[in-house]
Amino acid sequence: MKNEIEKIQYKEWLSSIKTKIKSAQIKASIAVNEEMLELYWIIGKDIAEKHLDTQYGTNFFENLSKDLKSDFPDTVGFSSTNLKYMKRFYLFYKEIRHQLGDEFENVIFTIPWRHHVEIFTRSKTVEEALFFIGKTKDNGWSRAMLINMMDTKLYETRGNTVNNFALTLPKTDSECAKEILKDEYKFDFLTLKENYEEKDLHTALEKNLISFLLELGSGFAFVGTHVPFVVNGDEYECDLLFYHLKLHRYIVVELKVVKFEPEFVSKLNFYCSAVNNLIKDETDKDSIGLLICKEKNDVVAQWTVERTSEPIGISTYNLQNVLPSEKEIEEKLSD
Predict the structure, then answer these.
(1) Which pLDDT score is estimated for 28?
(2) CA 327 from centroid of its chain's CA atoms
């Protein structure tokens, strides 16, 4: 008797889901993604709150998948795996639905489903997930780009760069600048010999410019390398120059293959001033300096930039692929 009642309840629920699917399918094509996510949310909510997977046994998702595919053979997205994701989708975000209120749909239902799967299966917290949803929406990230940004630990390192932005930039620009710069840049795409020099690192980054731009993050446009400045007859050059499309500011990048020293900032400060006077036009805002060192003492770095007039950020880089020198190779072969 109990089994019969459960079968009836299941059929009734299945019938209601089929009705919702048909309703979602006839919505205007411009809202297809939003309607689909709303549908996935409803299915996930029903499965979770009614404990359907527990009630109907271990084969519930496989059976539900077959039933839905039978009635909707031309509709993708009803695999057993995807149905499980729908439940996780609901459980992951259910606590913030009431907090966001009417804004929930504008926030959650604006990016593609496969992006969502990557986000809620990889994120440790809802806050991290919302961060990547916002980034995907604002920057139009492809799924491959989203995965790359999550792999580079963008969320963990955002805003951690030693900087003086709060002292030198308007609040909105200060927050944005903190967000776009990382505390540590991962140069895993490079392979250098041990005891490499600055010119070696510079050359390697030039040859791998696309990977370098991806590591910097969205919004960076490459301007030039070894950019020259002539100031009253004296010649200087900065290592790398970028332009950030969101900040509307030039980003002057200096590379150091040694530990941070306070005097490094003085030169970078001068380069920022040179860009402001010689390159930027009236539509651009003042430039930002980014010093990337092999390592740094955060206290020393922070004390240094606090007394600096130009907006400066100080980061480090991580280079895992370092080859032994020819001498070391010869010694090992001899041994």
Answers:
(1) 44
(2) 41
Helix (H, G, I), strand (E, B) or coil at 11: helix
d(CA 322, CA 286) in angstroms, rounded, equals: 37
Q: Is 266 helix (H, G, I), strand (E, B) or coil?
A: helix
Q: What is the pTM of this model?
A: 0.60
**Measured over all CA atoms, what is the biggest interatomic distance in the chain, rounded to whole angstroms?**
97
DSSP string spanning 96-126? HHHHHTTHHHHHHTTS-HHHHHHHHHH-SSH
Judge contact between 267 and 256, C-beta under 8 A. Answer: no
The span from the CA of 14 to the CA of 28, in Å, is 24
The pLDDT value given to residue 217: 84
- pLDDT tens track for 140-190: 778 888 887 788 777 877 667 899 998 999 988 888 888 888 888 989 888
Interacting residues of 284 by C-beta distance below 8 A, sequence separation 6+: 248, 249, 250
Q: How confident is residue 66, by pLDDT bands cut at 50, 70 and 90? A: very high
pLDDT at 322 (0 to 100): 67
In the predicted model, is pLDDT for residue 110 greater than 60? yes
Task: Write the burial class of residue 241 (CB in 10 Å: 0-12 exposed, 13-18 middle, 19+ buried).
Answer: buried
Tokens 């010869």 map to which residue?
Answer: 330
Beta strands in the chain (DSSP E): 162-163, 184-186, 192-193, 220-231, 234-244, 249-255, 285-293, 312-318, 322-323
Q: How many residues does the structure list for the chain?
A: 335
Nearest to 182 by CA among 62, 315, 80: 315
To the nearest 10°, the Cα dihedral for 160, 166, 167, 169?
Answer: 110
Q: Which residue has the tokens 């007039």?
A: 309
Residue pLDDT, tens place only, 69-98:
999 888 888 999 999 999 999 999 999 988
143-151 and 113-122 are packed helices; what angle lies between their axes, rounded to 10 degrees? 10
Q: Is 182 helix (H, G, I), strand (E, B) or coil?
A: strand
Tokens of 270: 């001068």
